[in-house]
Amino acid sequence: MQSILSVSQVSKTYASGQKALEHVDLEIRRGEIFALLGPNGAGKTTLISIICGIVTPSSGTILVDGHNAIRHPREARSRIGLVPQELSVDMFETVAATMRFSRGLFGKAPDKAHTEQVLRDLSLWDKRDAKIMELSGGMKRRVLIAKALSHEPDILFLDEPTAGVDVSLRRDMWKLIGSLRARGVTIILTTHYIEEAEEMADRVGVINKGQLLLVEDKAALMKKLGKREMDLSLVEPLSEVPAGLEEWHLSLEDEGHRLRYVFDAQAERTGIPSLLRKLGELGIAFKDLDTSKSSLEDIFVDLVEKR
Predict the structure, then answer these.
(1) Which one-letter DSSP state was computed for residue 226?
(2) Is residue 123 within 8 Å of residue 169, measured between CB atoms?
(3) H or E element at residue 22
(4) Could you report the per-residue pLDDT of 83-121, keeping only the tens digit for each?
(5) What percent of the chain has pLDDT over 90?
(6) How many distinct structural domains can be found in the chain?
(7) Contact 30, 37 (CB under 8 A)
(8) How far apart are the C-alpha atoms of 83 and 102, rounded to whole Å?
(9) Are 156 and 293 in the same domain?
(10) Which PROSITE patterns has this protein been placed in (predicted)?
């Protein structure tokens, strides 16, 4: 698939000596949803700010749809919409005027049809003449997205888009992101809500301490790194894992009523048949058996801890 954004060997060291990014390489495919995951201070916002021309990199190259973002920032920036974490609007301005002003900043002629469509998609049309200061926190977040979409960008950055919003609004925004992708917009989001990445993203990148640890297709990542768990609900509770079961590294859960076995589903031998036989030999009876796979959050935490 064709690349729309290319980041090559990008580093950022501040005057204090703090290294925010170290030799980051990243290719974003046209039309995909890419989730960038990382703990606080990992470098997510710094990377986005550099791509969007807000922060100057110490070294490296960035191409936005073929345009060098450092040498030709205006051409590159015109293809990008940015929804920042913090509110960055005039609170005394109306919703519609904010969107029109932002569109004008990019040299775009007024387009009433486009403005109306975006505001309707974001459930803001009825609030178009309201001052932003009169809106709820969730509605203000929608205004930020409308502002970012005002000039019809090819790439949309969402920096923690649902931080501080309720579950209902979060779901609405997920639907909007899906509809934007269907129209061909490339979407890059950073998030602490890993279920967002798990639900929406095509690919996932994990960043920590300024270094990009990996970039993988979401499905391939979960298949390759995901573990499975088998829980055995016991007929009689145990006070400790019995001798003879050491090789399976079992854990007791639910005050001894449950035995948990974590295994690699991709391994040639999972160890389950031999475990069940051993339990029978030891006279440990169970009344139910349940298996589940690791979530993306489990994989993310494991990766960051290992590095």
Answers:
(1) -
(2) no
(3) strand 19-29
(4) 888 777 888 999 999 999 999 999 899 999 999 999 998
(5) 49
(6) 2
(7) no
(8) 13
(9) no
(10) ABC_TRANSPORTER_1, ABC_TRANSPORTER_2
